[in-house]
Amino acid sequence: MSAARQPIRIAGGQGFWGDWLEAPYRQATGGPIDYLMMDYLAEVTMSILQKQKSRDPALGYAKDFVPLMERLLPELARRRFKVTANAGGVNPRACAQAVAEGARRAGLAGKVKIGVVTGDDLLDRLDALIARGHTLANLDTGEPVTAVRDRILSANAYLGAWPVVDALRQGADIVITGRVTDTGLTLGPMIHEFGWAADAWDRLAAGTVAGHTIECGAQCSGGNCLVEWDRIPDLANVGYPIVEANADGTFAITKHPGTGGRITVAGVSEQLVYEMGDPKAYITPDCVADFTTIQLAQAGKDRVRFSGIRGRPATDKLKVSLAYFYGYKAVGTLVYAWPDAYRKAQAADRVLRRRLADLGLKFEAILTEFVGVDATHGPLALAAGAGDEAPEVQLRVGVRSTDKAAVERFTRELAPLILNGPPSVTGFAGGRPKPEEIVAYWPALIDKKEVQPCVELVAV
Amino acid sequence: MRRAGRRVKPRGRRVQLVTLAHARSGDKGDTANVGLIALRPKDYPLLVKQVTAARVARHFKGMIRGPVERYELPNRHALNFLLHGALDGGGTISLKTDAQGKVFSTALLRMEIEVRR
User: Could you count the other beta carbons within 10 Å of the beta carbon of residue A170?
Assistant: First the structure.
């Protein structure tokens, strides 16, 4: 590749499904970008989408991605940036069809190409894989997946950047994927633009670090940042991050001019350690990145430069995220007022627990927290005197059980405390808590050769 | 509620980590991670020396059920702690307000370490 090539600009538009809807539009219109990257999939999102798909085979993707794209499409057509997003969930083809319809409605028939990445969904092949000796053992507990086989709702391998690259090479303007890693959505465009080789481990690691930095949206540009948090300017207008990437693997994180927030070495460092395991071995399908090699420098206002990043060869495994039905839970709250707010809430908790025991209800767990006292910092807050003279304390009690009836009965035991428990209690306007189904996450590994990513183009 | 502190020969003064470091925390299953970053690079060796895995495990006694692992990022003047069994099962299973371990960060910053007078 030519050394004179301009850096490419990859903008982070969504840090999770539910992130600020204005962000992608502002990224597309606030200044030049080459790519807009949007991450939708958290660990348990796939199971929610799988449930939706089982009720309606045309669903199973992040539905609000479609109106978002309809808003963006005229800008995309005019400014010619590309989009990478794992909004396809467990039904990327249906997601692509819905976006294609939106594009046709916007008069863009024949003007944009949508690439679809599939091959991550292992649910239909699960029994065959197990029969061939794949244990899909839980990475945390070591238990084989057969322990929960009859309760599994979804099973998806994490694909990396390469299928995204394939879609871009085929001319896709919008790449919609299933379970592609957050980092792959940023690394893919870099590989495509710079022609990086599959064994250019340092560069692949650099692109992975760039992806990690922007995958949580504004969390690297002033959001949720502790350093001088009360002096971070104009969070109402916060600028989401943009990677300015070079072919040699160096890059800078910046944001559009005129936006709020702050990009500093300290703030970016907070994002680097977010959800970090062993910093020397950040394992993705594409490489193993070494976060202890990252050098940062403030390169101007709201601009941090990254260099020195080293990587090692990818492993021969892919991570698989399975979701399975676990049981039921419910959480209820009441608020107690001064005087003795904390003691009243504690007394109410004792009464509640006694009644649950007298009813013979069986729970796997009952958890009591006193919001305003110990809900966030536990005994550390109590040791610092948190309960003394609190003007108000929220009693928050949660239960978990495989017995739905027990959880339902629990939800009826809070309201009576208002009239038949300790005094000065309020805050029940929301009504009885609702029992919720728990769909739990089961992380596992599988041999890479068992998973074949598939890329196709959808005509608009 | 204050526990009687052990008598330690006073060599320096004790300060809370919140004056020396910042932090961010998150989750992976039932494990919370806390990245602890020195506000000034010159204080990083203090963190390495005093904020040990064992010390952090004692700090979070009663809040976590598993062991504590520590990793060093000297390039970022940062330590990364993995607090296992911190999240009541984690993710969707957890009944905790902080099911995703978001505020273990500032809970760690309550810890006191010793600095020269």
Answer: 13
8 A C-beta contact, residue A326 and residue B90 = no
- Å between A399 CA and nearest CA of chain B: 7
Query: Does ipTM surpass 0.90 in this model?
Result: yes
Contact A108, A460 (CB under 8 A): yes
CA distance B88 to chain A (A): 9
CATH of the domain at B104: 3.30.70
Tell me: do A192 and A239 sit in the same domain: yes
Whether residue A438 and residue B96 make contact (CB cut-off 8 A), yes or no, is no
Q: Within the 5-44 window of chain B, which residues sit less than 8 Å (CB to CB) from chain A?
A: 22-31, 33, 35, 37, 39
In a domain, B47, yes or no: yes
Is B53 inside any structural domain? yes
Residue A126, domain member (yes or no): no
| pTM score, whole prediction | 0.95
> Residues A147-180: pLDDT tens digits?
999 999 999 999 999 999 999 999 999 999 999 9
| Helix ranges restricted to H, A237-286 | 265-272
Query: Distance (Å, rounded) from C-alpha A147 to C-alpha A126?
Result: 13
> Residues near A78 by Cβ (< 8 Å), separated by ≥ 6?
none
Average pLDDT of chain A is 96
| B117 band by pLDDT with thresholds 50, 70 and 90 | confident
Backbone dihedral angles phi then psi of residue A147, each to the nearest 5 degrees: -60, -30
Contact flag A380-B107 (C-beta cutoff 8 Å): yes
Q: Which domain holds residue A205?
A: 8-120+158-315
Q: How many domains in chain B?
A: 1
Tell me the two tokens of residue A450: 């068992």
> By CA distance, what is A439's nearest residue in B?
B92
A169 and A93 within one domain: yes
A335 and A249 part of one domain: no
Residue A43 predicted with pLDDT over 90: no
- Find the domain containing B97 and state its range: 15-115
Distance, CA of A114 to chain centre: 23
Q: Do A277 and B92 touch (CB under 8 A)?
A: no
Q: How far apart are CA A370 and CA A156, in angstroms?
A: 38
> A458: which 2 tokens?
């959808």
Task: Please indicate, yes or no, if residue B10 is contained in any of the structural domains.
Answer: no
Residue of A nearest to B112 (CA): A380
* A401 shares its domain with A355: yes
